[in-house]
Amino acid sequence: MNTNVLLGILIIAIGAFSSGSFSIPFDKVTQWKWENSWLIFSVFAYLIVPLIICLMVAPNFLAIYQTIPSDNLWLIFILGAVYGLANLKFGLSLRYLGVALGFCISLGLMMVIGTLLPPLIDGRMSKMFEGNGGILLILGLIVSCIGIGITAWSGILKSRKLEGLKGVKANANFDLRKGLFAALFVGLTGSSMSLGFEQGKLITEETVKAGTPVLFAKCPVFVLFFAGSLLSTLVWCIYLGIKNNSLGYYYKGRSKTLVTNYALCALASFLWFINYIFYGMGTSKLGEFSFVAWGTLMSLTIVCATVWGFFRGEWKGIEFKIKRLVWLGLAVLITASFLIGISG
Prior knowledge:
Elements: H1 3-21, H2 34-57, H3 61-65, H4 70-122, H5 124-128, H6 133-163, H7 176-190, H8 192-199, H9 201-209, H10 219-243, H11 255-283, H12 292-311, H13 320-343
């Protein structure tokens, strides 16, 4: 592993910390339903924050889009819309499984699928098998699956334990069946982000040619991709707002509560989006094997989220041997991340 790759992974690690922390501000949001918080978060995360940052580093991004084939632009947008659906389910996986398990299972599946698909589609996988890279990548993905399995089993044990506990309110919404279904959906559809970013290579190249530093060249890709995410999210959250009669919550209530809720959702969106800035910076250091950045980001995010889960008391009242199983699954996922990283 050369110095550039190591530096790239360190930069991505900073983003992973931010990503693993983004859901914490939601704990302080009051008097809103889930769809209220998620819609405001999405408006900031998918539109306002990416647009502001892109205008700062690549103000000519609209002109860059005009140089790109329309089918490429539409593909990125559509993949973004699919990811918006995935992120909706991700929010539900956090609700039903908690931060630790929700991140671990959802992002673990995204890591496996999102790392494997891009090199399979564009043919880079065959090049990796000319050396040891392909074997290391497949080994890393197998180890990832083992780590996900261990973590899922710890969730089953936790579910059984909570059924016999009274007075434990660390996560009153814990529902293993609903949570696992949401996490599986996230894993299958969430890899659209990895594919979307990979499809944005032409935009990235043109952005660099236009004078934007290579570290920030992915920002125009983010704006287009997340515009698709915003569309699918708005449709679903507005539907839920009508169904649950919660559309009025955006402007009804005490002014202080509303301002606090909006500010917390904005903070969550900043923490969430800024991780992709670091992801883009780190990816620029990895060259043609940029797809390994995805697995690195996912696994390190899982580490951070798991630590937060324990701090938030999600495992309160759970015996040590079950907690130890979580840390074992985490260690396996970190090992998988290392294998995926050195495969490039």
